[in-house]
Amino acid sequence: MGDALERYLDQHRTELDTELCTWPAEPGLFTRANANDQWPRPITPLTQDLIGLPMERGIGVAFSQVLGVAPDHGPWTWNAVFYGWYTFAVEPAAAMADNLPGWSRAGVYGDYFGVAEDPDAPPAAATGGASPLALAKIGVNFSKALRSYPKHSARDRVAAHARLRVDLDRDWSAVSDAELLGRLRAHTDEATRARVPHVLASVISAPIFKKANEMAASFAGEEATGLLTAAVTGLGGIHMQEATAALGDVARGTLTREEFLDQFGFRGFNEFELSAKPWRDDPETLDKLIARSAPRTEHSTAVRDEARAKLQAAAGRRWVVFRRLLAMAETHMRWRENGKVPLAMQTHSIRLVVREVARRLVERGRLTTPDDVHHLRLAELLDELEGRPVADLADRIARRRRTHELAQDLPLPEMIDARPGALSVITPERWRGLGVLPPVENAAGRDRLVGAPGSPGRHTGRARIVRDPSAVDLDEGDVIVAAGTDSAWTALFFQASAVVVDVGGPMSHSAIAAREIGIPCVVNVKDGTTGIREGQSITVDGDTGEVLLLETV
User: How far apart are the first and last CA of the chain?
Assistant: First the structure.
């Protein structure tokens, strides 16, 4: 992968525009794994400014102002964008370990990259950590956030849905330039605030689930991970799962298409990309989803109940405490998924604003096609709307459009080492310098892939390599193999018999969606989309986290 990345960058160096790359000031590690749920493809420049930056700023507000666990150093501290690919910055998360008891930088690298601590590494220099008073304050902040963020997220969802309904009914041609400018300028702060509850849900749910896994291991041994994964299967109350069930209601005639669109029409593949079409604007895809959804609408809770019975029997007197921990994990896992809903609503509202601005700029001769607007920076869009023409606008658009096209095929690894102006794979020396062992390379010709359990069960079927969920038709028994998935893939999951994903963990969208539907899922296999061939027969074991490669094609 490293050679492929270097060759591609060298081959297209004169065409790839680095203007929009948010290079770190110092060398740092980045991962696609935590970004794949929301950003499955390279994003356009306007999406980077209007949607991506507020998403990143929300992380800074959550960590610095709400939780008080780390300083925020301004825009693009927590995420980075390289040629349109959205990534998560691991170094700031690792730095937080210095302030939290029981945490270590090597442990953070292990959580994000799946690497092990190097036993021969010299002891890390003592940082002193946070003072007892600071730790107490952090504890109070976490406690407050745990109680308050669900209320804020629910409030944001109601407000965003109300605004979206108004925006969908609005005659945008009658709206003044000044009002459009006001909406564009206000969006960053509004989206940043709405992002904070989702960040808090992610930050809170992950350690709770990890603590539950550790406690289960103390009384259930090696079966703990598989049992815990099964115990949080079929929770219900998750927005995209409700959307998929509603597709079945439309197919059966118990829900009208307009009623469905009112509740779920803003969702869709790559839904946070401004140039993408949500279901409301993509009737062909919606028709296919409705037709696919009818055969399967409910998931039995038998697997979950059986797993909980086994955990209860193994826990004994500790069950009361464990059950409370499990209930907390369930609650925050729901909010981790549902926290995206107001963000997706806001995205479609501002998408409508952008479409109207694009129409006007085409009418005024500043853009050739409405799609050109997605290759502007936000500042350029504001200038153009205010009547301050941007010099060389057509050249800028053409250059950025070409970069976006080339980025689609950029062989970007899941784990990236970035320094000012350059990307590279993480070398073994770099790994060891961080106090961890380099990842073990999978041997060629292997007959299995090893990942992590995402959803329990075992299934053998035909592998389908899927990159766009709206562009594939599955047959009964097929297995989805994907680099990563976002919320819009859930409807396709209902047609599959199992799922294999290159990245992610038990809290990722792929795992949660598979558990809700009740199909086996293995995540974090690293190279499923390259190591498994289209049409190959494979066995997916969601209990052990293994994928067996059977007959070749």
Answer: 24
| 442: pLDDT strictly greater than 80 | no
For 471-500, what is each residue's pLDDT tens digit?
888 898 999 999 888 777 877 888 899 999
Tokens found for residue 283: 């009737």
Q: How far is residue 41 CA from its own chain's centroid?
A: 11
Other Cβ atoms less than 10 A from the Cβ of 552: the count is 9
> Is the CB of residue 232 less than 8 Å from the CB of residue 212?
no
β-strands 546-549, 537-541: how paired?
Answer: antiparallel
Q: What is the predicted pLDDT for the residue at 297?
A: 41
For residues 50 and 61, what is the distance between their CA atoms, to the nearest angstrom? Answer: 17
CB 99 within 8 A of CB 422: no
Which amino acid is it at 463? A
CA distance 37 to 86: 11
For the whole model, what pTM was predicted?
0.90
Q: Which residues of 481-508 are buried (b: 16+ CB within 10 A; e: fewer)?
A: bbbbbbbbbbbbbbbbbbbbbbbbbbbb
C-alpha to C-alpha distance for 349 and 344, rounded to whole angstroms: 9
Sign of the dihedral defined by the CA atoms of residues 341, 343, 344, 350, in that order:
positive
What pLDDT score was predicted for residue 444?
42
Question: What is the enclosing helix (H) or strand (E) of 501?
Answer: strand 498-501
Alpha carbons 264 and 279: distance in angstroms, whole number? 8
What CA–CA distance (Å, rounded) separates 499 from 349? Answer: 32
**b/e per residue 37-76 (b: at least 16 CB within 10 A):** bbbbbbbbbbbbbbbbbbbbbbbbbbbbebbbbbebeeeb
Chain segment 226-263, per-residue pLDDT in tens = 888 888 887 778 888 888 889 989 999 999 999 999 99
pLDDT value for 485: 84
| Farthest-apart Cα atoms in the chain, separation | 74
- 15 alpha-carbon distance from chain centroid: 29
| Mean of pLDDT values over 497-522 | 86
